[in-house]
Amino acid sequence: MTNPAERLVDLLDLEQIEVNIFRGRSPQESLQRVFGGQVAGQALVAAGRTTEGDRPVHSLHAYFLRPGRPGVPIVYQVERVRDGRSFTTRRVVAVQQGRTIFNLTASFHQPEPGFEHQLPMRRVVPAPEELPTVADEVREHLGGLPEGLERMARRQPFDIRYVDRLRWKPEEIEGAEPRSAVWMRAVGPLGEDPLVHTCALTYASDMTLLDAVRIPIEPLWGPRGFDMASLDHAMWFHRPFRADEWFLYDQESPIATGGRGLARGRIYDRAGNLLVSVVQEGLLRPHSKEHSLEQPYAEGTGA
User: Coiled coil located at which positions (predicted)?
Assistant: First the structure.
């Protein structure tokens, strides 16, 4: 398959090897560790496969415990914690080469009526059609796309467009607030299964969230002075959505201290409806030597 969206759907299609036990592929990439969004998305698929399918996911809470190795399969062991009248709870442990690398607890809720309110979006932003893709912005700035980034762009399952464009130079981040926003959508259709869309968006939610932590300290493009890794990740799903339609990922970092940065994200549809809330804490450690990165989200934030 050459379509990145099809590859993502295939990546999320786990093999069931026993009751409550699933195996997921981990593509052989040039990354140092498995992308954290991949592990979270696959774990959520495993959890969902053990339910009746009539209750959408309403929340997940996860911890990244060890870095995963690219190219090595990951086994997902599901514990059926609770099957209640309205809620279903699952706990998932991801194991690679005999070691636990990731834990996830997911809760599923039978839809029911209730009152509604929502804070408005923080600001008005340009439409995604008015913004360049990351690859186009790099081509505009550099006069072309580096070969390594060209390969990454062809494999990228999501179209990502930065509302405030990429920061390229230190002077561009002087006085910058720890905020970032991107439009995103899968680069192709993802089918009609709501669980696939939820897991695909879970995959995407780990791609740019720690940008908000980085923005006050270094440009999003160029040599990276810090190594980043996701420590934990939580999501609350408020309304139905499709991950192959445009959604706005509005991100902010209320604090960074002690080598850790906290980031919060709100995901909206084009009409301004709040679809998903996300919170993540990441580890940021200065590199002992210069480490060049040719794409702001190339490593993901990783497990």
Answer: none
pTM of the model: 0.91
* pLDDT of res. 139: 84
Active site residues: 206, 230, 280
The pairs formed by 24-30 with CB atoms below 8 angstroms and a separation of 24 or more are 24/73, 24/74, 24/75, 24/76, 25/73, 26/68, 26/69, 26/70, 26/71, 26/72, 26/73, 26/74, 26/96, 27/70, 27/71, 28/70, 28/71, 29/70, 29/71, 30/148
pLDDT digits (tens, 9 = 90+) for 44-80: 999 999 999 899 999 999 999 999 999 999 999 999 9
Can you list the domains of the chain with their CATH numbers? 4-112+131-287 (2.40.160.210)
Q: What is the 3-state secondary structure (H, E, C) of 67-103?
A: CCCCCCCEEEEEEEEEECCCEEEEEEEEEECCEEEEE
